[in-house]
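Quick illustration for those who missed Monday's session on complexes.
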Amino acid sequence: MGASVCIDGALVAPELASVPVMDRGFLYGDSAFEVTRTYGGQPFALGAHLDRLERSCERLGIPATGLGAALRPEIAVALGAAANEESYVRVIVTRGITDIGLGVGRGETPRRVVVVLPLTEQPAALYEDGVELATVMSARALDGTGAAGAKASNYLPNILALAAARARGGYEALSVGPGGELLEGATSNVFLVRGGRVATPPLGVGILEGITRRVVMEAAREGGVEVEERLLFPPDLYGADEAFITSSLREVVPVVRADGAVIGDGRPGLVTRRLAAAFARRRDALLAAERG
Ligand SMILES: Cc1ncc(COP(=O)(O)O)c(C=O)c1O
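Prediction with pyridoxal-5'-phosphate bound:
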């Protein structure tokens, strides 16, 4: 069991793995990334993650042609070298090296990095008891730019939002946009349930199109529940019967409090539990389809 790192196709001892300080990923956070986890050793929704990575790079103007095809075998090699039962998989693509200065378009060669670590299981209490959200007014790194919604590596706004949320006793920060609209967690998407109807903020507000968000929406639709994508505001959150957050590492986590207010009866709700189960079924079906 262990860690493994693959840089531009070459396995490197994890304790020695490094990128040059002149790499723009280090200098400016000028890079995009993905995180997924394995189930039975198989990375979940790898095709969807690699497609999103290519789209993120395109939005950032990082050359992305053939990226997914290059990364697939590198991820397989890194997973093989780590030999974990289950792994955390992080893939990073930086714009590479240029002379110092912000300007781009000087023939950069993107750098590919794959990091595999043993997966840390989430505490059962997250799912059994639910968590608290704390809303945080925050502009995220790409808000208002043409690249909004790309999974760029500059997570400083998310890091600061999470720290602010944790200081108020929250488990996850829920960012709120300039118009007071709910956006997304520091590393998750959010869903609300009211009167049996499920809603989540629309992609147009600039949030990341979470892979878990998408699979939950597909699973809900299969079960006859349409998830509405619409603008939501803090009163919708406080007045919800149920709420939950989604992410690749945590799947579906019930939310039972927000900014100190109790949501529903303060316990993980029935619709949330049903959607979590529907997600798990669809996840397993997708894994089986990906195995071919
Ligand atoms: C800002 C942000 N939103 C949403 C998500 C959830 O995305 P996914 O379900 O693809 O993991 C993440 C995951 O890290 C994230 O960082």
